[in-house]
Amino acid sequence: MDTSTVEYIFASQFLHFIMKRRGVFWRSRDLLCRVHSNLFNTLIQDFVSQYLDKEERNIYILFLKMNRRFKVDNETFPMVAESLKNGIFNEVSTIAELIRYCIVLCQFSLLAYLKGSYLAPYTGLIATYDAIKIYISNKVESPDVFWATLNVHISELVHGIPKIIMDNPSRNLQKNGVSKQESRRQELKGENKIQNPQGKELQNKQAAKSSLLERQVMPHQQQSQLKGQDTTTEQVQKQKKNMTQQHQRDEEQKVSFQQAQRRPKEQYRWQREQNQLIQSHKPVMQELKKLLNQKEQHREQKRLPQGQEQKEQLQGKERFHWHKEKKVSFQQPIQRWPQEQYQSQREQNQLIQKHKPVVQELKQLHQQKEQLQWHRKQESQLQEQEQLMQGQKYMHQDKKL
């Protein structure tokens, strides 16, 4: 069972609507990240709700009869679904009958879910998916034709004018044992003198009236038929556009999923190249670290407190007084210190300028590592979703077996 097909999405939305109608908010995990389709529209929802308003009681009575024979559980509900398939689905020949069968099956799964079989919605979903798939493959030219004409058939069921036949037989005919059809035939022939004493005169009047009615009604019927044809063509065109858009979206999702599967290989190659570059530039990094440490030490030496500066000045004065013969002043060490400092700074700046491209490459590598971590998180999430999908598939297969 392919969960990315239109049949699966339609079946899941069908079942979700029937359960939501009774206040049971159930949804499969496969549809959490899926795009919602417009096939299960308000017209189909209205038909389903109207049918259940009329036949919900009868469906519930049928479910109780089956529940008396054996208790409906997670193990017995698949047998119930198979019995419905053998008894009802084999006689389905139209789209209306198919949708009624799906309504009964989904209503059974809802009742079983309320009774305690929590896996009944999954079996109902699988059964509806199989029914739609089999009907399309056996009794329709192509799935596009089925989905394009679905709304047209359902609109005929919802908005169709019912044919009302008024038959009011008299009590005397029922007592004498005369049926409705025979009494009607006798009226038309003129044999029944109780209901038609005039005979042929009444037949002629009825024929004249019917001819006048046909002349008056025919143009209105033609106009209504033309309007109906126009509306059907517009609906078919809109449905075809929606179908094409949905196919494009499905294809885009498949392409994005395939690209997500290919990304890890490219990322691993890229990571290997980065590691090789880092290993090749390790000694340069060590030299740069040493230079930075030396800079920090010089800065700390500059930031001496005031007390130490005064002590150094006093020591310089004492040297000037005690060493007059040697002519050494306290200004000489102060003059030598900046020269040595500038030389060290020049050397450091020269080394930094030499290794500027290496530093830039290292910064880029650091940014790329952060991107890799983010991609790995996304891959882990995708893998978790795939595992959930596979687990659900195995569960369905085990239940079928």
Give the class from helix and strand content and strand pairing: mainly alpha
Count of beta strands? 0
Radius of gyration: 44 Å
Low-confidence stretches: 160-180, 191-198, 212-222, 322-336
Sheet-strand content, in percent, reads: under 5%
Q: How would you sum up the global shape?
A: elongated
Helix-strand pattern, N to C?
A: HHHHHHHHHHHHH
Averaging pLDDT over every residue, what do you get?
A: 71
Q: Can you summarize the main beta sheet?
A: none
- Helical segment tally? 13
CA(first)-CA(last) distance: 15 Å
State the share of residues found in helices, binned by percent.
over 70%
Describe this structure in words.
This protein is mainly alpha-helical and 401 residues long. 79% of the residues lie in helices and 0% in strands. It contains 13 helices and no strands. Helix 1 packs across helix 4, helix 2 crosses helix 4 and helix 2 packs across helix 6. The longest helix is centred in the middle third of the chain and has 81 residues. The protein is elongated. About 14% of the residues have low confidence.
SSE layout and pairing:
Elements: H1 6-21, H2 42-69, H3 77-87, H4 95-115, H5 120-139, H6 143-159, H7 171-176, H8 180-189, H9 200-280, H10 282-302, H11 306-322, H12 331-354, H13 356-400
Helix pairs in contact: 1-4, 1-5, 2-4, 2-6, 3-5, 4-5, 6-9, 9-13, 10-12
